[in-house]
Design a protein that fits this description.
With about 230 residues, this protein is α+β, with helices and mostly antiparallel strands. It is built from 8 helices and 4 strands, in the order ββββαααααααα. Helix 1 crosses helix 2, helix 2 packs across helix 7 and helix 5 crosses helix 6. The termini are far apart.
Length: about 230
């Protein structure tokens, strides 16, 4: 299993002053760990301060989310390194777990991964889904029609485990990235196409029912290494 992290920096707080980071010999800053994350175990939040001009005083909060993502044979990767997931992909994983829990499902399947991508919503993969008529509300409705509504007395576990098709979708994404030989991160497009590759999975069936096609998948594959295309026009 490969461990990756996602960090968010620099949240303005004009009411607080900033100091330089403590040296290695200084006591560690306050660190609070919370049980959280989609495929990981812990959310750690640390407040770090440093000197900046008085006109731009900031308090900087660093939040790190650790994930255990499926990986393939390390020897396949150049220089023995596993590709890392993009920030948008990691956020999609977190949202997928939340969607599974909202529906009170005991596992996180490809349908939850699909909804996670739609909740994150800013990636090229999410845009391709919307252009095909696949929206979050429609995906939820189709998921309930396909898998059924969970009993009101059933509670989803804190960390709904991945189903076999969901794990295969993630492994497909990693394998495709390694086969390409390209540098860069694993994107949300890798994840979505991994779901689409699992033809008998709930996620694939929901996508197909709502209008996603092989042609759209091929079009998305052309920009698979990008989560978003910036335009300055």
């Amino acid at each position: 299993m490969a461990t990756h992290s996602l960090s968010f920096f620099s949240i303005p707080s004009p009411s607080q002053s900033c100091k330089r980071p403590q040296s290695e010999n200084s006591p560690a800053p306050n660190l609070k760990s919370l049980p959280c994350s989609f495929l990981g175990r812990e959310l750690s939040i640390r407040v770090s301060n440093w000197n900046v001009p008085t006109s731009k005083r900031r308090s900087c909060v660093v939040a790190t989310v650790a994930f255990d993502l499926p990986s393939t044979d390390v020897e396949k990767a150049p220089s023995g390194k596993q590709p890392k997931w993009s920030a948008r992909a990691l956020k999609a994983f977190v949202m997928a777990e939340l969607e599974a829990r909202k529906l009170r499902y005991t596992t996180t399947g490809t349908e939850a991964l699909l909804m996670g991508i739609l909740v994150e919503g800013t990636s090229l993969a999410a845009k391709a889904l919307r252009e095909s008529g696949v929206t979050l509300f429609k995906a939820r409705d189709e998921t309930v029609k396909l898998l059924g509504q969970s009993d009101i007395y059933i509670f989803s576990p804190e960390y709904p485990p991945l189903t076999k098709p969901a794990r295969k979708a993630l492994e497909w994404a990693v394998d495709e990235k390694l086969k390409s030989g390209e540098d860069g991160e694993l994107t949300v497009s890798h994840l979505l196409l991994g779901i689409w590759a699992q033809e008998v999975s709930a996620g694939h069936i929901v996508m197909a029912t709502l209008g996603f096609t092989d042609e759209k998948a091929k079009e998305l594959a052309k920009t698979i290494d990008k989560d978003i295309i910036l335009s300055f026009k």
